[in-house]
Structure formats: structure tokens, C-alpha cells
Specification:
The complex is a heterodimer of chains A (402) and B (55). In chain A, 55% of the residues lie in helices and 3% in strands. Chain A is an all-alpha fold and 402 residues long. Chain A has one domain. Chain A has a two-stranded antiparallel ribbon with strand order 1-2. In chain A, a hairpin with a 3-residue loop joins strand 1 and strand 2. In chain A, helix 3 packs across helix 14. Chain A is globular, with a radius of gyration of 22 Å. The termini of chain A are far apart. Chain B has no helices and three strands. Chain B is globular and about 25 Å long. The termini of chain B are close together. With 55 residues, chain B is mainly beta. In chain B, strands 2-1-3 form a three-stranded antiparallel sheet, with no helix packed on it. In chain B, strand 1 and strand 2 form a beta hairpin. Chain B has one domain: Rubrerythrin, domain 2 (Single Sheet). The chains are: A mainly alpha (402), B mainly beta (55). Chains A and B meet through helix 8 and helix 9 of A and loops of B. Chain B: This is Rubredoxin. Chain B: InterPro entries: Rubredoxin-like_dom, Rubredoxin_dom, Rubredoxin_ET. Chain B: It comes from Pseudomonas xionganensis.
Chain lengths: 402, 55
């Protein structure tokens, strides 16, 4: 097993063994789980088994989270430079990108070449979208890095679901305005995921385009210049998805439209759960305080973190966005979700259940302690929510029901 | 020409080099950057947070 060591002037020899080192290969192989339904169909001739990869993602990963438990292990800070420089970790997300392209092509081929019922087509299209959405997570890990190779691979991963503006919008828009009412990618208390998506998806397109337009204009170039990174990724979408239509026919059009949208929905789900209700306070000069560790919802499950490049260690990601996945740290006493992100994506689709699970947990956070001034609340909902949760404070257990 | 450090992620704005990718040409002095300038690497820290490290 690979060990990292360094000599520290005061602490002596520091060593660290990353127990997850080879488990990170799971991230590379996970997109192939999308193909499990097709494999089972060939074995059994049963078209209902196309639902397997959808269940695996929304329910199966949560079961694995429960079985494998949490991981609170952090690398020593002194060894983080070595971890960051290790090429093995660097190449895993880069090599995951072709997997996302491969999965899309296989689904396109399968749908166009088999006689399938409508339920089968729906299940297959949603599965393709769900795993293309996972590609947005891969692009997220890569898009925060500085080398050109990582940034190009991010644009390719985004092209699979036609979401090429994401890295620009996320890095320069969301990270800057996170956990404020001005950020369409931070959800508010009392806002369900459907209301959130109707604002977040179009606003994301607009803000990504606007940020890139400003950068191009500062360079003295037109927004349509080929170096526009949003356009570069959209052009790749045109090439990949245009080729699929040309080769596999017009059935690709509804397939691609729905799979793209369901890919975006995965990213919307992540944005919805990552900062729900959390609010940065205003400083005396009118600006917002910096994003603090308590402005993100975390989860520390081994299984789901391995599938998401440790996205669930979200507080450390917002504090140190350029830090690579293998170095992200877990901290005690941060806002913590009751289950991993995949399970929360499923809960978010049932708003009544989401509010039941999250609202008291939010109000009971130590830095909020029932104070609605410290909550990012959906406009016009404050009086109603205050009346519903009157008296909820840090002293009351978060799980207690209304 | 001076250098300014992002205290969050360690990015340095070197006036001699500028930040051409963001559209700030070599020789652009720090005080001439727009007030809404944010760290091009981490986007966590803004212009006010940057620290002068080298005159």
C-alpha cells in the first residue's frame, strides 16, 4: 500500500496511508453501472430490468452508504502537497470522461437498434440522462483545476448532456454568491425542488453566458470568438449529439432532449441539497461575509463519496475550491445531511418529505438556533414558516416532528 | 510592479504578468482592476482581501 511521508521540523516524521486510494477506481467504473439494465435484458429478455440502474442510483447507493458507513479520515495537511501532486489521482477523473461519452453512445445505439416498448424507452432514456448528469459531477471536479487538460476534459464531460456553461457559471457565479438570496444555484427554505429548478436552470444558462461574455469583452473579443469556453463545449455537444442523430436516426431527437434534461436535473438536485436554507450574513460595509464551513450541507459516507469525487465534503470544497478530491477534509459539527447525496436527491423529489426531513434540522443548526434572520427563506414564506416552526431552537432535537 | 496574494488559495496577481485569460493585460496595476475583481482561481476572495506581498 502506498505511503506518503515527510519530515516535519517540529513533529518529526509524518506518514499517511490513503485507505481509499484504490477504491477511487470505483469512480472510473461507476458510469458503467448504467449498462447493467441492458446486460440483464440480454440475460433474461425482460425489458422491466432497464429500471435497475435507476434504482441502483437512487436507492442502492443509499443502502451501500448505510452498510459501509462514514469515513471521517483526513490526510495530514503537511502531506496534502504530495497527494495533490500524485498523478494517479489526477488521471482518474480525466479517464472517467471517455466513460460518460461511451455510455451515451451505447444507449443511443441500443435504443435505435432494438424493438422496445414505451416504458423501456423511458427507463433507458432516464438512465442515460442520470449517468450523463454524473458526468457534470466529473466536470465539476475537473473544471475547478488550473491545468488546461483538466479544463478541456471538463468541457467534454459537459458536452455529453449539453450543459457547457456549467463550469463558468459554477466557478465564477455560484462560488462567489453561494448561500445568498442572489444566487439562483442556492436553494431557499420553503422552496421545493420544482420551483427551484424553474429558476435555477434558466438562470444558470444566463449567468454562465454573461460571465463568459464579460471575460471575452475584457479581452477585446466578441462573445462569439472561438475561445469562448461555453461555446466550445456547446460545439462539442453539436458534434457528439449531431453525429448520434446522423448515425442512429430521428429517434435520437426525443432521446437526446430528455436525456439532456435529466442530466441537468441531477445537477439541479445537487445544487438544491448542498446549501438549502443556509445564509451568509451581511458585513458592516454591506457585502457578505466569506463563505464559512456552516454554509454547506455535508455527508461523509464512504460509498456515495467514492462515486462523487468527495463532493459531499462540501464545506471544504467551498473553502478551498481548487483542492483536489483526494485531499478534501471532513470536519465535525458541520451541517450534516441524514443520508448521502444520492438518497437526498430522491427525497428532494417529494417536497413534503423533504421539508419534514430538513426544515427542523436547518433551524436547529447551532449558528441559526431558530433565528429566521439567519435563514435563506423563499420570498413571501417567512411569516408562515415562522408560525409553523415557532419555538424550534438548537435545544430541540432536530429529528423531532411538528 | 507589485504582486498581490489571494490569502485563500495562494494565487498571486503579478502586475507585470497581468491575467490575460481574464482579460487583464500584462502591466495592469492591481488598483486598476475592477472593484468586483475576484480571485480567478478560487472565486472565494475578492479584491479587498488580496494582500500585497512584493512591491
Amino acid at each position: 500500500m502506498h505511503r506518503f511521508t515527510t519530515q516535519h521540523p517540529d513533529k518529526g516524521e509524518i506518514t499517511y496511508q490513503d485507505r481509499k486510494r484504490y477504491l477511487w477506481l470505483v469512480s472510473l467504473l461507476y458510469p458503467l453501472v448504467a449498462l447493467s439494465g441492458i446486460g440483464l435484458y440480454y440475460l433474461t429478455d425482460n425489458q422491466w430490468l432497464f429500471v435497475v440502474p435507476l434504482i441502483a442510483s437512487y436507492i442502492g447507493v443509499s443502502v451501500l452508504d448505510w452498510l459501509l458507513g462514514e469515513d471521517r479520515n483526513n490526510p495530514p495537511e503537511e502531506l496534502v502537497p504530495q497527494l495533490e501532486a500524485d498523478a494517479y489521482y489526477r488521471w482518474l477523473p480525466i479517464l472517467t470522461v471517455p466513460m460518460h461519452v461511451l455510455v451515451l453512445v451505447i444507449f443511443a445505439w441500443f435504443i435505435s437498434s432494438h424493438d422496445l416498448g414505451v416504458p423501456a424507452l423511458i427507463m433507458l432514456t432516464l438512465t442515460a440522462g442520470l449517468y450523463s448528469g454524473l458526468g457534470i459531477n466529473t466536470a465539476h471536479e475537473l473544471g475547478h483545476k488550473k491545468p488546461a487538460l483538466e479544463r478541456w476534459m471538463a468541457r467534454i464531460a459537459l458536452a455529453v448532456s449539453g450543459y457547457g456553461h456549467f463550469c463558468v457559471e459554477h466557478n465564477r457565479g455560484h462560488h462567489r454568491h453561494v448561500a445568498t438570496p442572489e444566487d439562483p444555484a442556492s436553494s431557499k427554505m420553503g422552496e421545493n425542488i420544482y420551483q427551484f429548478a424553474c429558476k435555477e436552470i434558466p438562470a444558470g444558462f444566463r449567468r454562465g453566458w454573461q460571465c463568459e461574455k464579460e471575460r471575452m469583452e475584457r479581452q477585446g473579443k466578441s462573445v462569439w470568438h472561438p475561445s469562448n469556453e461555453v461555446l466550445q463545449s456547446y460545439a462539442l455537444t453539436l458534434v457528439i449529439q449531431g453525429a448520434l442523430i446522423a448515425v442512429f436516426g430521428w429517434i435520437m431527437l426525443p432521446f437526446l432532449l430528455v436525456q439532456n434534461f435529466f442530466g441537468w436535473w441531477q445537477l439541479t438536485s445537487a445544487n438544491y441539497i448542498e446549501h438549502y436554507g443556509l445564509l451568509r450574513q451581511r458585513k458592516a460595509n454591506g457585502g457578505y461575509e466569506h463563505c464559512q464551513p456552516w454554509h454547506s450541507w455535508n455527508a461523509d459516507y464512504i460509498a456515495s463519496n467514492l462515486l462523487l469525487f468527495q463532493l459531499e465534503r462540501h464545506s471544504d470544497h467551498h473553502a478551498n475550491p481548487t483542492r483536489r478530491y483526494q485531499s478534501l477534509r471532513s470536519f465535525a459539527d458541520l451541517p450534516t445531511l441524514p443520508i448521502g447525496y444520492f438518497g437526498m436527491y430522491a427525497i428532494a423529489m417529494l417536497p413534503a418529505l423533504w421539508y419534514r426531513v430538513m426544515d427542523k434540522r436547518l433551524l436547529a443548526l447551532p449558528h441559526i438556533a431558530g433565528d429566521f434572520d439567519k435563514v435563506n427563506i423563499a420570498p413571501g414564506r417567512r411569516a408562515e414558516l415562522e408560525a409553523r416552526y415557532a419555538g424550534v431552537s438548537a435545544q430541540q432535537p432536530a429529528a423531532q416532528e411538528a | 510592479m507589485a504582486k498581490y496574494l489571494c490569502p485563500g488559495c495562494g494565487y498571486q496577481y503579478d502586475e507585470a504578468l497581468g491575467e490575460p485569460r481574464e482579460g487583464f493585460a500584462p502591466g495592469t496595476i492591481f488598483t486598476a482592476l475592477p472593484e468586483d475583481f475576484f480571485c480567478p482561481d478560487c472565486a472565494v476572495r475578492g479584491k479587498d482581501d488580496f494582500e500585497l506581498v512584493e512591491e
